[in-house]
Amino acid sequence: MKVIRYALYAVIALIVLAVAAVAIAVAVINPNDYKPQIEAAVEKHTNLDLILEGDIGWSFIPLGLELNDVEATLEGERLVALERLVAQIDFWSLIAMAPRVNTFLLDGLDARLVVNEQGEGNWTRIMPEGEPAEAPEQAAAEPDTASEEAAGGEMLDFNVENIEINNARVHYNDLSTGQSVTLEDFTVSASNITLGSEFPLDIRFKVETAQPQFAVDGSISARVNANQALNEFAVSGLKAVFDMNGEPFGGKSVKAEVAGSLQANLEEETASLNDFTASLANLKLSTNLNIRGFGDQPALDGRLDIASFSLKQLLSNLGQPAIETEDPDVLKAIALSTNLGGQPGTVALSDLKITLDDTTFNGGGSYNLTNGGLTFNLQGDKINADRYLPPASDEEEAAPQQAAEAGPEGDLLPLETIRDLLLDIDFGLGELIISNLTINEIKASTTAKDGLLQVDEFSGKLYDGSFGANVTIDARTDNPKWRVRSDVTNVKTLPLLTDLAEVDMLSGAANLNVAVDTNGNRVSTLRNNAKGEISFNLAEGMLRNMNLTRMACQGIALANQETLGTTDWGTHTPFNDMRGTLKIDGNTLNNTDLVAALAGMRLEGDGTVDMEQSQLDYELGLRIVGEIHRDNACRVTEYVQNVVIPVECRGNFVENPAGLCSFDGSRFRDTLKDIAANAARAKVREETDRAKQRAEEKAREEIDKRLGEDGERVRDAVRGLFNR
């Protein structure tokens, strides 16, 4: 027992001696006496000029050091200044071999970082040029004693009673770019910091930039926990608020907020966000997310929701230009929700729901982080795309001229982007209204790989008919090749053309087969290089706002040398089975086999369509095959039977569809020749028949005189001779 008692006395004595020694040192040694030596040492080993204007003070319990009014200059310019620094360690924690920082206070830090016109930062000139650096091999060869001790012994019991940073400022100025950034009013406050236990953390700051002019006033508060190995962290009660304004927001003030909690384990490479929310103006996102793996193959599991918001209001809140739409009530209810998951390296969306005003899309997809492959399947109910178009204006009439004066034509497709695409997308829509067209049951399937973009299917229902198409774009060269194939079945042309272009010149059930090949990456080039054909057939249709029967009767009346008496001809021409083939040669469509069946007539013709100028140039013929009208002047005699009444159709088919076709008087001369030939042939037949009749009558009279009672038998024989 005496040994223990003596040992205890000895330890107490040592502690007392240590305390006394420290107390005597603090009382006797004045650190201000060493200012010149400290300043000289800094100037000797660096390019800095250190100025210690304030006092250097000691404290005993707690043991600490205080610096006041410190400044360091570089080449005559201030680099850093400090109003006050206090560092204190709990003395008794040193005696207990568990060091505890009592207080760390940093007040009035002012740092000025400058990059010159050559892109060199002033901090890179702190050390003298030619200062020998420690060789990497030597540094690697030297053992890390502290690390070994930490690894082999117990972990350090790290404790900090209080940390405060007040009124810190950092000025960054880049003379090579003109950019400047200022961090000011930077404040950090934390207390009772112990590894393995939760402690509060508060941060406040202001940041301003010159290019663009932008300012952020931020505050962050949370409770933080880190284990002693510093490989596991947790943040709870996070609340961060950022008030922003400046040029990016059109001078408006915008608030962003972040809240929630998060955990991360660096050793196991896991992280999670719990009840995490982020908002910007009226846009709010919330998620619960787990992440496994911090490399290029992370695995996700969670959910993401974007609450319904108005895009128009968001743009207004952010000081951005407004989106003008035909319907002012669209873009006011947008929302998204989805589950997140997928195999490692893949971000998969399931139970995806996107709401756009009164339209809902459902589906899912995935994105491969390794190769950028995107797979998507999205199905929507209905949408009126015309509601989202810019509102019509009087300036639209000048659009073609403005487009021509806008400058050189640009490329249509980003070829490099297409070559990198890896897509497999399926899209469906119950109803789409676009350009006043109503399309139902839309299906689209698109794939892309190695520069080959394919629309394998694009189909739908359109005006009591259907359509289907497939398109291939080969973008593997700088002169991409296009292949378009399409078919249209029984689509009613009148409502289609009326809704699409307010053109009501044609009705009927249209059947089309389109095969076009072209190359290029500009619209004009694609049109100039187009080759192919369009075969068409319209059953039981009508040419509206033009009466071909009247035009035919004009020619027949001229041939009959009479005047038409009918004034009410009607405005349309019904037909049956109009068909033909359009050969595509650049901007020109050539048609040489146009035929259609009309009442008492057969429409025949050929012509061209200039798609670039919207011009039509057709020479048509109305071949008379039967009675066509009740007007007596339009009676079909044998003279006009099978002749062709000429009609011409020329002009802009967009601007003046009703005035395209008219009677062609210049070609009617050829028709008159045909009529004259028919008349001559009819005259010959008439004279022949008349001569036959006279010969028969004369023969009958002669026989009656000579044969008497047997005359009837002979007359029958004569009739047979004259084919009567």
Give the percentage of residues in beta strands.
over 45%
Q: What is the total tally of β strands? A: 32
Overall residue-averaged pLDDT value: 82
Tally the helices: what do you get? Answer: 13
Q: What is the 3D shape?
A: elongated
Main sheet overview: 32 strands, mixed
Task: Report what the structure shows.
The chain is α+β, with helices and mostly antiparallel strands and 724 residues long. Helices cover 22% and strands 48% of the residues. Among the domains are: 414-529; 530-707, no CATH class. The chain is built from 13 helices and 32 strands. It starts with a helix and ends with a helix.
Task: Summarize the topology.
Blueprint: H1 2-28, H2 35-45, E1 48-52, E2 56-59, E3 63-74, E4 77-89, H3 91-95, E5 100-107, E6 110-115, H4 136-141, H5 145-152, E7 159-174, E8 179-194, E9 198-209, E10 214-226, E11 232-246, E12 253-265, E13 270-280, E14 283-292, E15 299-309, H6 311-317, E16 334-341, E17 346-356, E18 359-368, E19 374-384, H7 399-404, H8 415-420, E20 423-434, E21 437-449, E22 452-462, E23 465-474, E24 481-492, H9 493-501, E25 506-519, H10 523-528, E26 531-543, H11 548-560, E27 573-585, E28 588-598, E29 601-610, E30 615-624, E31 644-652, E32 661-663, H12 665-707, H13 711-721
Give a concise summary.
Helix content is 22%, strand content 48%.
Observed structural traits:
32-stranded mixed β-sheet, alpha+beta, 724 residues, disordered N terminus, 13 helices
